[in-house]
């Protein structure tokens, strides 16, 4: 049996620095849902706190193709699509470029890959 090393340091509410034998990583998100970037790539994680039930999926890698969300408009605009269309595309395995910003109070703000702000319904689907 080999030795393991893992240390999680909370930088701010919803932001954690992860240290392990393999390297340094960063996790962003509230309890039960997070986005992690580390030596093994980018992962999304969703779970039910206190139950031990969780789902983790690699969001980048050779077998995943990045695709833009056009929201039914031409020109590849990734802004303002309906939450239902977003949910349908994600359930088909498409990926979505997103940007997260953390404000001074620890609030998380979601943006499309082109920088336009996501509305509450879109952010809820993404979480």
Task: Give the SSE map.
Elements: E1 6-12, E2 15-20, E3 23-28, E4 33-38, E5 41-48, E6 53-58, H1 83-91, E7 98-102, E8 108-112, H2 120-126
Antiparallel strand pairs: 1-2, 2-3, 3-4, 4-5, 5-6, 7-8
Please characterize this protein's 3D structure.
By secondary structure, the chain is mainly beta. It has 2 domains: 1-60, no CATH class; 65-127, no CATH class. Helix content is 13%, strand content 39%. The chain has 2 helices and 8 strands, in the order ββββββαββα. The protein has a 6-stranded antiparallel β-sheet, with no helix packed on it. A hairpin with a 2-residue loop joins β4 and β5 (41-48). The N and C termini lie far apart (36 Å). Mean pLDDT is 75; it is low at 62-79.
Key features?
127 residues, mainly beta, 2 domains, six-stranded antiparallel β-sheet, 2 helices, 39% strand, globular
Overall pLDDT metric: 75
Coarse shape: globular
The separation of the N and C termini measures 36 Å
Q: Measured on Cα atoms, how large is the radius of gyration? A: 16 Å
Write down how many β-strands occur, each being a DSSP E stretch of 2 or more residues. Answer: 8
Offer a concise description of the structure.
The chain is mainly beta and 127 residues long. The protein has 2 domains: 1-60, no CATH class; 65-127, no CATH class. It has 2 helices and 8 strands; from the N terminus they run E-E-E-E-E-E-H-E-E-H.
């Amino acid at each position: 049996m080999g030795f393991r090393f893992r240390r999680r340091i909370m930088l701010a509410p919803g932001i954690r620095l992860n240290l392990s034998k393999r390297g340094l990583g960063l996790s962003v998100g509230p309890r039960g849902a997070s986005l992690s970037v580390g030596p093994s790539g980018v992962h999304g994680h969703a779970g039910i706190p206190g139950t031990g039930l969780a789902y983790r999926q690699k969001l980048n890698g050779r077998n995943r193709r990045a695709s833009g969300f056009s929201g039914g408009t031409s020109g590849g605009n990734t802004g303002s699509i309906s939450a239902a269309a977003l949910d349908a595309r994600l359930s088909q395995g498409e990926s979505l470029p997103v940007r997260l910003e953390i404000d001074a109070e620890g609030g998380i703000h979601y943006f499309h890959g082109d920088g336009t702000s996501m509305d509450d319904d879109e952010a809820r689907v993404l979480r």
